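Lab notebook page, bench 4
Experiment: in silico fold of construct C2
Operator: M.H.
Input chain length: 380 residues
Purpose: comparison with the prior construct
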Amino acid sequence: MIGYFDVRNGCAGDMIAGALAGCVGGNEIKKILNGIDFPYGYSIEIRQVLRSSGHSHGIKANQFIVNVNEKENERSYKEIVSIFNKSRLPLSIKERILAVFETLAHAESKVHEEPIEKLHFHSVGQTDALVEVAFSIIALDFLGIKRIFASPVGISCAAPATLKIASGIPVIMRNFDFESTTPTGISIIKTLVESYQDTPPFLFENYSYGTGTLLTDLPDVVQFSYGKNIGSNFERIGVLETSVDDMNPLVFDHLMEVLYKVGALEVSFFTGITKKSRPIFSIRIMCRPEQKQRISEIIFKETTTLGIRYREEERIILERRIRKIKTKYGDINVKIAYLSSKEPVNIMPEYEDCKAVAIREGIPLKKVVEEVLRIILNEK
């Protein structure tokens, strides 16, 4: 599934959550949110309001309002990480939520010239901001959105953290007399969006608008649209390459882990021989073009390289779906790739699921894989 955020007029956490609430409804997501033990009690209210659109009838948009039961103090970044790490959410959702707050923390750290581990958030660390981010990530997962695109981000009267986060992504500087984009809103967009260009073709399914509580004559809304991917498609990727001949190869395991954590698509290491017959390690990373700066910084900090080569390429990818297969060992996820919506061309049981079963049952890994493939083939 492909999702698209139109954020030309700006974005905030409540606006993004409101747009998604219009597509999923609130009740199912609220149940999942119960898996997070927030320090303060709260309630969510979703109101439909009319917003200016430049036309006579206006736009119906959703306000996402979080009512917190008690007055809050500032909250440290460590506390936020702890809240979500202790939650009962699926790991993939936890990681995406924490990635949003990591984006925010890096920006606030630079603005306030304070180490992340000592950082305290004010409004962006309050319960309403935490709920807005968590709701948005859970809603995208609920809809099955795998790829997210967006328009350039509309910015006006921006906070310093917003401008720090905006570094490296397309923006439109708007002549509005209010803060059109907040640090929370742009953190969600920057963390999740793979491209700010046109989406690949998809079968349109639904849309909704989200808005904030500020009253203005301008179209202060975020639009979210989504639909089903159509078979294989082209996407633009960035490729970063560098070589090192004076570094302990034990570091590569850590480097790979850090790069994947921030969203690298693929990380590879190659060995060779360079001048004076010295062994050399070549590092190649594939990423979204807008991730170039962040990944470059990691390479410079974690390796001994003095330079990085960068280029952009197109790649063709297949539509991929995950199916849960019931086996005598329990449920195992299987990744199925389609050349068209009805023609599977590649079927592969998820390695980590099969590995966990093999260890638990004390049997060869290949036996688990063969059992899953046997069940799938017998379905035909």
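Observations: The two ends are 25 Å apart (CA to CA). The CA atoms of residues 48 and 62 lie 5 Å apart.
Next step: discuss at group meeting.
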